[in-house]
Amino acid sequence: MSSGEIECSNTLEDALDQALPSQAFVYRPVRQRVYALLLGDGRDGASPCPTVKEWFVYSGNPLRHPDLVRPLQMNIPGTDGLGYGNHSFVHQEPGVQGRRLDALLGCFDLSSSREELQAVESPFKALCCLLIYLFVQVDTLCLEDLHAFIAQALCLQGKSTVQLVDLQLDYIDPRAVQLGSLLVRGLTTLVLVNSACGFPWRTSDFMPWNVFDGKLFHQKYLQAEKGHSVEALVEQNRSRLTKFHALKSVVCKACVKENRRIVSRQHGRSQQPGRWGRQGSGSHRTSSGYSRAGHGQHWRDQGAGNRQYEPDHWRRYSSSSGWPN
């Protein structure tokens, strides 16, 4: 960050899957708010708006030139000029920890879910934060995906290394692989945000071995796709079932606040034959006021290299294509 460059030169994505965006774009608004937090956004007029060079791999980008990305303003009281530039997050005066948390949630644009997330026990607080962000940003995620993410996190707590190694899968679904990769990139992004905000949450809660296992997620994903009950997903464990419904409620209620209703994959198909997404169903919470309708495929149409991005160019992703066969 001190040199104005950041890179992620590898990813695990299916370039032919038109229903899921690249992690490079899903988490770009979060990174832009971190840039604003650490480098300033230029709105005070005293200094020009900084530009960060991003070397992020995605389909069609040969990484010959960086994407030039500007900071994204955060509308949180008390965050102007904060960050390590004036050491305001390093001090231990009363109220600083609350400001750190406000900044973290502001980076994910989840300030309205502060109370609900604070009530979630660790390490699921971080998981819920990411799931809310992902499901608000990516309209092609469905109820079955949410069930698989939550069930695997709960079941992981009771699995030994030997049990995880011995898991056998009927087959490999490319979409499940990409979803798992998307969540893991979210965890690394959360590490970046947490450190930039002065560590309001414990870093250990973001470590994948506490909340995510790729093979276990794949198993739960395949089961959810086949229509297995929630009880089956949590392996008939009553305690897990109670926690499952509690975590699901937190994510769904937060999404409803953003006009995002999570429905099952089959229900979505029946309501919108041949399509997935909520065209024209709302607008992003930035000051631009742009509707998401018509902006669903911006991430595929950009081309690559040496471009300068303004903050308002990054909207929620809403696919206008059907589910992959």
Automatic annotation (TrEMBL):
Please name the GO terms of the biological process aspect recorded for this protein, alphabetically.
fat cell differentiation; peroxisome proliferator activated receptor signaling pathway
Q: Which residues form the signal peptide?
A: none
Q: Where is this region: Disordered?
A: 263-325
Polar residues composition bias: residue spans: 281-290
- InterPro entries, A to Z: Coact_PPARg (IPR026784)
Cellular component aspect of the GO annotation: nucleus
Q: What is this protein called?
A: Constitutive coactivator of peroxisome proliferator-activated receptor gamma
Source organism of the structure = Gulo gulo (Wolverine)
